[in-house]
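Pasting as-is:
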Amino acid sequence: MPRIPLLAALALAMPLLAQESPTSLTDAMQRLAEATTAAEKAIVARDREALAAPLAVLRAEVTALQGRTLQLPHPDLAAAALAELAGACTDLAAPVGDGTASDPFDLARLRRACTQCHLGNRDRNEERGLFPNRDNALRGQLRVEERDGTPRAVADGVVVFLEGDRTRAEPQPRVPRISQKGRRFDPPLLVVTTGTVVAFPNDDVVFHNVFSLSRGNAFDLGTYGKGTAKERAFATPGLVKVHCNIHPEMVSHVLVLETSLATTSDAAGRFVLTDVPDGKYVLRLWHPLADEQRHEVEVTGGQLRTLAPLVVRETKPRVPHNNKHGRAYPEKY
């Protein structure tokens, strides 16, 4: 039998791979859907034993799919969604207390991750449906511009949220973290609901002093070293600017909202709001260097609504902040 050159063999194999790949991905999506349905039934029935099996399937399928994101149109979006889905599964396996508050919260995270991945990587979503999303979904694309109108290459960090009669949310049952590492805060932006407790662990090799002078949420955690974590509950809605009293380059923002219908744009400026009940809302956009925007929107009938493109322009100058005493940082620290 004559030998086929490697490139020719690959060329012959590509059509077969293209035919096999969608089928296997479809099968994986079906298994994920069935496991999600089973997990939700177990949570509604408060049956922790019944939850174990679908969680095992979800974890296995997520692990397998994480190695295949390059097959999808937007692998970055898929990778982020799968990471969130994996985190939701881990948390569902370890509920807070009896899980009364944390199970619905973690299940919503799972549904949100799946819906975001579907809307970014799958076509014909209008006819296929938005499962496992509940009610309606909103999606959009935005562009971030510099003060002179030059588009920024990266459009992440814009918070998109809804305000309306049905948007008020309870404090998050899980404690999000803002780590101190490499003389940086990670993440640099965190969105939480009113009353949520946030942890500030020092994962660095140096001491830090985390504080904020923001009205309604001012705090000072004092100086502490590696391996120590301190917490703060944010009771007042609004922006909390978080700094370190030792290192002026360290900046993070905590946006405290009364709604859980919120998300953050990714690097491409994409955003998706999931599990949106029927109704009229004010859609708000927040960026640390831009003026806030408000747009009236209405959703109904369990539909997907795609918004017109939005533009966020930076209008505010970058200014240095003071230390916790309201004075400029020393030149050497």
